[in-house]
Design a protein that fits this description.
Oligomer: single chain
Strand content: 15-25%
Shape: globular
Structural class: alpha+beta
Radius of gyration: 15 Å
Helix content: 25-40%
Number of domains: 1
Number of strands: 5
Largest sheet: 3 strands, antiparallel
Length: 135
């Protein structure tokens, strides 16, 4: 058997991050995340806006999200670039879980619809801790 490593750029739009954040915080990581504090550049969350939508919007606009861990008094600040790095590490360690879509425009992206709650949890853990420490 012969193997080779392939490398190419993948474009991730804001909708991708909206979907990923929803999967992370509405099922994937809620067994170890106690709560979050959203520092959105535009201020407080409007009434009726789901927290996951506001988190994604904050990260997409350069804000931060402080993640408070259930066990102990630890908290970690998340920025979008950390999430991108966590996603890359997940893709490297779990390549069979990654669904790449090659669009007619010549661009490639990851299909966020194929990232389940377990994968989303791993992505967040890689983003925050550079390792899987829960679950």
């Amino acid at each position: 058997m012969t193997t080779m490593k392939v490398s190419f750029d993948i474009e991730l739009d804001n909708e991708f991050f909206d979907d990923l954040i929803c999967t992370i915080f509405e099922g994937g990581s809620n067994y170890w995340v106690g709560h979050v504090k959203i520092d959105h550049p535009e201020g407080d969350k409007p009434t009726g806006t789901p927290a996951s939508t506001w988190i994604a919007d904050a990260l997409n606009k350069g804000g931060t999200v402080t993640v408070f861990i259930l066990e102990g008094d630890e908290n970690v600040v998340l920025v979008k670039n950390m999430l991108v790095e966590g996603l890359g590490k997940w893709a490297e360690h779990y390549p069979t879980h990654v669904s790449i879509v090659h669009e007619n425009t010549g661009k490639s992206t990851i299909d966020a619809g194929d990232i389940d709650a377990d994968d989303a949890d791993i992505i967040l853990q890689y983003a925050l801790f550079n390792d899987v420490v829960f679950g």
